[in-house]
């Protein structure tokens, strides 16, 4: 891709979108060089800011005509480098498409544009007594379009499910530049569940331009407790006992001593002093059910060695309990100059063993690891601490972080529960899946994007050649381009 | 003359695994040349490699409970039976997951899970005594009343093992509930009617069996009355596991609400529910029509979907069609999710059945949904498109072309002739 090619494409995009919607100035482009995973940085060749689905489709068509790859980006809060730009491609930013088009409580649906902030959907539905259930920790800033791409989760997905369970319809721009509707407001559209395949495809199958989400009736009662334990073993045993009792809590979150220390330092959430682990358990639903089960949960926590148990008396106290948990990632910055946020999944029953292994590795390599996790579904978020100013520490932290994923795989788990594969975990995919598995997944990719122009280099370590490509002119083959010249 | 293909199939997976097809093996009137029943994913792979090399058209069958659904296969050389691919591979009760082979009967799986106080929360309608298999339920995306609380196959399936039409084994997902690594092929194979390959194993998320349940049943005067009650239940804090409606051809309409939970919780919610409904019968057992389709073998079976607020209108449209055309058109289904089923007797004149399908399809479309003809006598099938309008059909054809470029798997059974 030469400078001339880029300026030709830039002119084509300006003709469609208008001057203000296309960025080519190097300094301005730098604003978009990374997403929430800031150790990868690539300056895109161009940034396009479409305001409508038609503009978004025209942007993609211009890219296809030029044979230039494109990467979609919402709020840029992703933690796996999924929205990392391509050095010779166009970054398509959907943040200007942020209208909430309809809130339909009688249909339990809302129709929103991809740039709408996750929390704003719940706010719009709140007056009707409904909310949008998926609640990633970044919900105050992350976009619904990004949630769709990543199949985002959140603390409450233990009971309510993930983005994929709460999106019933999409309008997408395919990598051919066509606008297509998948699913709808009604359930069970006939044909293949391409909607289901698209959600969580990390921008490799196209760009979302409209999302129909399910709204959930807000619960009559919410009860939250915070319990301090001597260590993660006891907290883990309490978690297992709660699940074994047939309770499906809205959330069960665990933090170990180091994570508690960090949260306390950052937000003064008032967690039990000296606890080796804390557990946050939240139940919601009809008051009669919640009251009955909350008594059981309190008892089970005590039976498994809980010291202090604090029950939130009102929303303010509940918010304080959650504040410590939701700010845990950032809080770790208080106790370490740098850190890696890991995201792995294990069968919940393997928790004690896996935590012991992580502690062993941490001790052997002398790398501190703080543990924060969605204990109910075995989704670990180990925070691997290091100081980039000390030579070798970053590499060591990377090694420990990778070793933790290997432990997850060895226990039949996953290399990512909610942050996505993106750029960050491409190298781990072959450890979790066979070549045939990855090849088969890429059959779907070939159906949508035979030219490999949509977010190339993400999710799959080795692109599959798709055979004959229908339609438009073929430009420089993007698959041979890593596009990572400026990674550091 | 010796049959080379049969010899190859037998050599691939063992002599007792393949045999010539007979009249009793016919799928929607099409008789297969061969029938094979692999005992493992490996044997299935070997058989499907032979099928690929010999360019055989393949239809997969489980118990055959829903083989009358979808279109008849355009070609059928090899009927692949999952009857030997049975059993639970792993039930990790503490993790609330199960890995099960596709040929396992749904009832057998539930019986295995029940002692641990767990269930696969799929209450898909089953004819009495039917041994509907996991694979069949996944392939047809069959769902039941409790989809309102637990969702459908797509919400519960967390991992899948398939054999592609070219005989390559592939896995996607895993056995943990939370997992976003790679594409979710489980969703792609769900409801694909066997057109993309053979499903051999499924991993599901499980739910605890509720300690208590109650069915609240109340008769309603008409579709509008049903709609008002359904809306009241949806806006309430009852949190039902199912909200069903049944409108019999004789004009009687009933609404039923299933409450599941703790003994105390269900008791209190039931009292609130009876008050909300303005009087209702509470019972431990469901009404007789619960989780069953309103048609008999050989009848016309329809699936109608709508946005939630469109349920009363669609119910009214069905009632009107029944009166106008003087047919005993029955309808029942999930007023809590917008999925209804309609049944027309086999004796209905094919032209009339086709006309009713066209009319109701337009009504469903207006309500934001679809009408799919799940099953119908051949004379009705000839006159209608089973699937109706399908968004994204071009992409679906491209998906099919990638997975099954020779169009050998269940050819012609699915949308757009896929």
Write the layout of secondary structure elements.
The complex is a heterodimer of chains A (488) and B (418).
Chain A: H1 3-17, E1 22-23, H2 26-30, E2 46-48, H3 53-66, E3 70-73, E4 90-93, E5 100-104, E6 109-112, H4 118-125, E7 130-131, H5 144-150, H6 157-160, E8 167-173, E9 179-183, H7 194-198, E10 207-214, E11 216-217, E12 221-229, H8 232-244, E13 251-256, H9 257-267, E14 277-285, H10 287-303, E15 309-311, H11 315-326, H12 328-331, E16 338-341, E17 344-345, H13 351-365, E18 369-374, E19 379-386, H14 393-410, H15 429-432, H16 435-448
Parallel strand pairs in A: 2-4, 3-4
Antiparallel strand pairs in A: 1-2, 5-6, 6-10, 7-11, 8-9, 8-10, 12-14, 12-15, 13-14, 13-18, 16-19, 17-19, 18-19
Chain B: H1 4-13, E1 18-20, E2 34-36, H2 41-53, E3 58-61, E4 78-81, E5 88-92, E6 97-101, H3 106-113, E7 118-119, H4 134-140, H5 147-150, H6 153-156, E8 157-163, E9 169-173, H7 185-189, E10 198-205, E11 207-208, E12 212-220, H8 223-235, E13 242-247, E14 253-261, H9 263-276, E15 281-283, E16 300-305, H10 311-325, E17 330-334, E18 339-344, H11 350-366, E19 371-375, H12 378-381, H13 393-403
Parallel strand pairs in B: 2-4, 3-4
Antiparallel strand pairs in B: 1-2, 5-6, 6-10, 7-11, 8-9, 8-10, 12-14, 12-15, 13-14, 13-17, 16-18, 16-19, 17-18
Helix pairs in contact in B: 1-2, 8-10, 10-11
Cofactor (chain A): FAD
Domain FAD-binding PCMH-type (chain A): 40-218
Protein name (chain A): Glycolate oxidase
């Amino acid at each position: 891709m030469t400078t001339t090619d880029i300026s030709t494409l830039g002119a084509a995009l300006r003709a469609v979108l208008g001057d203000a919607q296309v960025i080519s100035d190097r300094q301005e482009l730098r604003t978009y060089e990374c997403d929430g995973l800031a150790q990868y940085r690539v300056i895109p060749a161009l940034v396009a800011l479409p305001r409508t689905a038609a503009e978004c489709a025209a942007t993609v068509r211009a890219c296809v005509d030029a044979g230039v790859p494109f990467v979609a980006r919402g709020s840029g809060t992703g933690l796996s480098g999924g929205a990392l730009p391509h050095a010779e491609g166009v970054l398509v930013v959907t943040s200007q498409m942020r209208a909430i088009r309809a809130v339909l409580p009688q249909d339990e649906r809302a129709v929103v544009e991809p740039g709408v902030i996750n929390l704003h959907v719940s706010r719009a539905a709140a007056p009707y007594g409904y909310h949008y259930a998926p609640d990633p920790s970044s919900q105050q800033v992350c976009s619904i379009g990004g949630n769709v791409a990543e199949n985002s989760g959140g603390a409450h997905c233990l009971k309510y499910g993930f983005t994929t369970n709460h999106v019933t319809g999409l309008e997408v721009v395919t990598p051919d530049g066509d606008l297509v509707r998948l699913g709808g407001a009604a359930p069970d559209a006939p044909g293949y569940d391409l909607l289901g395949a698209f959600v969580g495809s990390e921008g490799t199958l196209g760009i979302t331009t409209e999302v129909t989400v399910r709204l959930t009736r807000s619960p009559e009662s919410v009860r939250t407790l915070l319990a301090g334990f001597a260590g993660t073993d006891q907290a883990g045993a309490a978690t297992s006992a709660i699940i074994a009792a047939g309770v499906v809590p809205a959330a069960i979150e665990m933090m170990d001593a180091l994570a508690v220390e960090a949260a306390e330092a950052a937000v003064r959430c008032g967690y039990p002093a000296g606890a080796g682990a804390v557990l946050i358990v939240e139940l919601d639903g009809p008051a009669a059910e919640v009251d009955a089960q909350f008594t059981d949960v309190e008892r089970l926590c005590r039976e498994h060695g809980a010291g202090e148990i604090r029950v939130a008396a009102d929303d303010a106290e509940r918010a304080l309990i959650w504040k410590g948990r939701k700010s845990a990632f950032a809080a770790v910055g208080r106790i370490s100059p740098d850190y890696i946020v890991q995201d792995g999944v294990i069968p919940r029953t393997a928790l004690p063993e896996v935590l012991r292994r992580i502690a062993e590795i941490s001790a052997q390599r002398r790398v501190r690891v703080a543990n924060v996790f969605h204990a109910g579904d075995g989704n670990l978020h180990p925070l691997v601490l290091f100081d980039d100013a000390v030579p070798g520490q970053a590499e060591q932290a990377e090694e420990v972080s990778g070793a933790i994923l290997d432990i997850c795989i060895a226990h039949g788990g996953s290399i990512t529960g909610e942050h996505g594969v993106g750029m960050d975990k491409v190298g781990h995919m072959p450890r979790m899946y066979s070549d045939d598995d990855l090849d088969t997944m890429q059959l779907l990719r070939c159906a949508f994007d035979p030219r490999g122009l949509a977010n190339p280099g993400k999710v799959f370590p080795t692109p599959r050649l798709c055979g004959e490509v229908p339609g438009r002119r073929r430009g420089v083959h993007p698959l041979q381009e890593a596009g990572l010249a400026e990674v550091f | 003359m010796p049959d080379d293909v049969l010899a190859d199939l037998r050599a691939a997976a063992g002599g007792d695994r393949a045999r010539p097809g007979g009249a009793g093996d016919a799928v929607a009137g099409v008789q297969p040349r061969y029938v094979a029943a692999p005992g493992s994913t490996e044997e299935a792979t070997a058989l499907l490699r032979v099928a690929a090399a010999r360019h055989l058209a393949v239809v997969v069958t489980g118990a055959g409970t829903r083989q009358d659904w979808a279109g008849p296969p355009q070609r059928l050389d090899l009927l692949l039976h999952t009857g030997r691919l049975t059993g639970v591979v792993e039930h990790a009760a503490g993790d609330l997951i199960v890995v099960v082979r596709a040929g396992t009967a749904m009832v057998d799986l539930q019986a295995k899970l029940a002692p641990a106080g767990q269930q696969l929360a799929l209450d898909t309608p089953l004819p009495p005594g039917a041994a509907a298999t996991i694979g069949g339920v996944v392939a047809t995306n069959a769902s039941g009343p409790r989809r309102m609380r637990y969702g459908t196959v797509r919400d519960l399936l967390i991992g899948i093992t398939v054999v592609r039409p070219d005989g390559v084994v592939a896995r996607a997902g895993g056995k943990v509930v939370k997992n976003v690594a790679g594409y979710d092929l489980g969703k792609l194979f769900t409801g694909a009617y066997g057109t993309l390959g053979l499903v051999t194993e499924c991993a599901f998320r499980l739910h605890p069996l509720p300690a208590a349940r109650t069915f609240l049943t109340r008769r309603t005067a008409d579709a509008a009355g049903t709609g008002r009650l359904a809306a009241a239940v949806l806006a309430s804090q009852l949190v039902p596991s199912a909200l069903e409606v049944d409108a019999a051809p004789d004009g009687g309409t009933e609404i039923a609400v299933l409450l599941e939970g703790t003994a105390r919780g269900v008791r209190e919610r039931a009292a609130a529910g009876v008050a909300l409904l303005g009087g209702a019968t509470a019972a431990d057992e469901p009404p007789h029509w619960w989780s069953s389709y309103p048609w008999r073998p050989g009848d016309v079976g329809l699936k109608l979907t709508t946005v939630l607020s469109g349920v009363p209108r669609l119910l009214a449209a069905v009632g009107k069609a029944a009166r106008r055309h003087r047919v005993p058109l029955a309808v029942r289904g999930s007023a809590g999710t917008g999925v209804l089923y309609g049944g027309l007797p086999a004796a209905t004149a094919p032209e009339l059945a086709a006309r009713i399908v066209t009319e109701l399809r337009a009504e469903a479309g207006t309500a934001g949904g679809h009408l799919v003809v799940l099953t119908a006598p051949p004379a009705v099938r000839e006159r209608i498109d089973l699937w109706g309008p399908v968004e994204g059909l071009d992409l679906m054809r491209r998906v099919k072309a990638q997975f099954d470029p020779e169009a050998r798997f269940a050819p012609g059974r699915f949308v757009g002739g896929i």
